[in-house]
Each structure stands twice: as structure tokens, then as C-alpha cells.
Design brief:
The chain has 375 residues and is an alpha/beta fold. The protein has helices at residues 56-61, 83-99, 113-125, 159-166, 197-227, 266-270, 282-289, 322-331, 354-370, and strands at residues 5-11, 27-33, 40-44, 66-71, 104-110, 149-153, 234-236, 279-281, 309-314, 337-342. The strands form 2 sheets. Strands 1-2-4-3-5-6-9-10 form an 8-stranded mixed β-sheet, sandwiched between helices. It has a two-stranded antiparallel ribbon with strand order 7-8. α1 links the parallel β3 (40-44) and β4.
Length: 375
């Protein structure tokens, strides 16, 4: 199915979610067939990225579906992220779709958004989300309208998991990213690749230990700041592009090329200032990035999902790996669940047909589960 597509900006008309100069904080763009209002619509959101122009929007709209690329108040503001607030914002997008004719709503969890949309669906059925430290639960968190289908697309298992698997454990002092322990440096040729099994075990344990050290510092620092009359503070984190799988194709093998990460050369990226969790507040680290305290992990929510669920893995992804997709599939509580691999990189930019094949797969899966035409 194909046809002309119309796209329009959408904003949640909630005064409390507007800046002083009038910018709606929960907003996005809606793509749909230009000739009609679809009865089946998809919503995609992320912790931080702007999904208002998601690459799948025009492709699925051309196949008769609505597609709302939706942004919460934390789009571009990852350092301040709080899960309950974000879920309330996603609920506004789901309600907008229902109010505009959508009888079936598909929750699309793409990349980091996989765990976010899983948390949304779980919370929509039963209270599972806690208030962040020093805060109250957001108004409306107990009244989220649920979705009908769930798609996990090239999704990470959770924010603390992906960050920890990318953390450089050779860092000795968070205040000085140049100070490292050579025996834990994956970019030191003396260590590999290929990486021996004992090195992998020691390396992964040191990554978890680094996450825990930051977590413990955040707890102490948050208490110190609050005792001084400050509610929170920001801090930086560097050297976050150091997953052994970036260099060693034998670890969690798929069709990816190495060396590679989402920023290209991982050795160069690891010494740069771009990446996830580069700036965070103390509360946000504890709520999102901490292995011990984070609520942003799909394993906490997937068992509660009973809706039909599709897990799509990119065959050449260099940042989401086969073990991630298998863990998501195994964690889903739905009896109707399926894992499909599609040729392509994380964003399905290559090969040239990847995005069309992906759109056709998702469209066909939705049609099979709903037994109806999208429009």
C-alpha cells in the first residue's frame, strides 16, 4: 500500500507544559495518509532524541498508518530526565491519537526508546514507577491510556545497561579522563583484540564497578548539596565508548564491521566529549543511569506486558547486539511475541532497501494482529 502523505505539527495544549515564551514542551509531528484519518496509529518517543521526524513516519504513513513522532519535555534535556514526568508526556500523545480517530495505538520503542515505551505500557496497567529522590510522583501518572501493540526496534535493554557496557573501566579518576589503568584499556593492543575470556570477565566487572563508584558518589554528593541548601547539581562523565564488542567481532557476533560505534571510530569517540550521560544531575544519574537504582530498564517492565509484541533486530547493528534482542524477547510477558532480524545498521540506512523492508515488516505484523486495514 502506498499513497500521498501529510505531516503536521502536534503539541499538547497543557499550560503547565509550556515555556514562558509559549513553546509546548510535549510536542511532535504526525504523519498520515493525506486522504483519510487512519484507524491504526503508531507513537514513538525517546529519552532524549527528537523523534518528530522519525525515518519510519513517512514510510508507514504511505502504507496507511498514522505515525506520531513524539517528544517529551526532556527532548535535548537528558541531564534532567525523570521517568514519571516523561511517561505523563507520552500519555498526552497517546490521548491525542485516540482523540483523532486511532482505534489501535502501537507503542514503538526504538533504540533507547525501547525501555521507555515498555515502562509506559507497564505503568498504564498498574503502578510500577517510583518517584525520583526528593520529588513527588507527577500528576496523571496513574491515568495513562495504554497502547494495544508493542514494537521493540533495535532497542537497548535499558539506560544503565547500555551505558555500563560502554563505560571505559580503565578510568581511575572521574575528574581526569586521561588518567587510566593500562591493564583495563581495551584500546591498548597488549590486551587485544581478540580479547581473552579472562580479560572480558575482568573488564565487565570493572565496568560495573565504575558505575557503582559514580552511584555512591552521587548519593554522598546529593546529601552534601541538600544539606547546603541545594536541591541538586550537574556533573560530567567522559570515556563512554568502550564496549569490547566495538573491536572484537567474535563477541556477540552479528554482521557488523569493526572497529565501529555510532560515532564512527570508537577509539576517537572515547576520547571525545559526545556520548550518552556526558552531563547529568545527581538525581537523574540515580534515576536513569545507576545499575543499582535506575528505573529506566526494560527488564523491570517487560514481564508485565501482555500485548502482542514484535522485537526487531538490525543485523549489522554495532551498538545493540543479538544478546540484547534475545533478552528483550525472553523478558516479554506476552504469549504473542516474535523476534525478527532485518538486514541493516542501527538506523537502517544501509543497505538501500533496509528501511522499506523494515516498514513492510512492521506494517504486515500490525495488520496480522489487528485483522483490519490501517485506514
Amino acid at each position: 500500500m502506498s499513497g500521498a502523505v501529510a505531516c503536521e505539527p502536534v503539541a499538547a495544549d497543557v499550560p503547565a507544559l509550556r515555556t514562558g515564551w509559549g513553546l509546548p514542551l510535549a510536542r511532535g509531528a504526525y504523519c498520515r495518509p493525506s486522504a483519510r484519518s487512519p484507524r491504526i496509529a503508531i507513537i514513538a518517543a525517546h529519552y532524549n532524541l527528537d523523534f518528530s521526524h522519525h525515518y519510519l513516519a513517512p514510510l508507514l504513513a504511505a502504507r496507511g498508518f498514522g505515525f506520531l513522532g513524539w517528544n517529551t519535555r526532556f527532548c535535548g534535556r537528558e541531564a534532567y530526565f525523570l521517568l514519571d514526568r516523561a511517561l505523563v508526556d507520552i500519555g498526552l500523545g497517546v490521548r491525542w491519537l485516540r482523540d483523532h480517530g486511532a482505534e489501535v495505538v502501537v507503542l514503538l520503542g526504538n533504540s533507547g526508546g525501547g525501555s521507555l515505551m515498555a515502562a509506559y505500557q507497564a505503568q498504564a496497567h498498574a503502578p510500577v514507577v517510583r518517584a525520583a529522590r526528593g520529588a513527588r510522583l507527577a500528576a496523571g501518572i496513574d491515568r495513562l491510556p495504554p497502547g494495544d501493540l508493542y514494537v521493540s526496534l533495535a532497542a537497548h535493554p535499558g539506560r544503565p545497561e547500555v551505558l555500563t557496557s560502554w563505560l571505559d573501566p580503565s578510568v581511575l579518576d572521574e575528574r581526569d579522563p586521561a588518567l587510566t589503568e593500562p591493564s583495563l584499556d581495551m584500546y591498548d593492543a597488549c590486551n587485544g583484540p581478540p580479547f581473552p575470556e579472562d580479560f572480558v570477565e575482568r573488564y565487565r566487572a570493572a565496568q560495573r564497578a565504575r558505575n557503582q563508584r559514580v552511584t555512591e558518589w552521587c548519593r554522598r554528593e546529593l546529601e552534601r548539596m541538600q544539606n547546603a541548601g541545594f536541591p541538586d547539581r550537574l556533573f560530567t562523565l567522559q570515556r563512554t565508548w568502550a564496549d569490547l564488542r566495538f573491536l572484537d567481532p567474535a563477541l556477540d557476533p552479528n554482521e557488523r564491521s569493526v572497529p565501529a560505534c555510532y560515532l564512527g571510530d570508537p577509539a576517537r569517540a572515547n576520547r571525545g566529549i559526545d556520548g550518552i550521560a556526558t552531563v547529568s544531575s545527581l538525581r537523574t544519574w540515580l534515576a536513569m543511569w545507576s545499575l543499582e537504582e535506575s528505573q529506566c530498564r526494560s527488564a523491570d517492565y517487560l514481564p508485565q506486558l501482555r500485548t502482542p509484541s514484535l522485537v526487531v533486530q538490525a543485523g549489522a547493528d554495532c551498538g545493540v547486539f543479538p544478546s540484547d534482542a534475545q533478552a528483550i524477547l525472553a523478558g516479554l510477558g506476552s504469549h504473542d511475541k516474535q523476534l525478527v532480524q532485518v538486514a541493516g545498521d542501527h538506523y537502517f540506512q544501509t543497505p538501500a532497501t533496509a528501511r522499506q523492508e523494515l516498514a513492510e515488516l512492521i506494517a504486515g505484523w500490525i495488520a496480522e494482529r489487528t485483522g483490519r486495514a490501517p485506514a
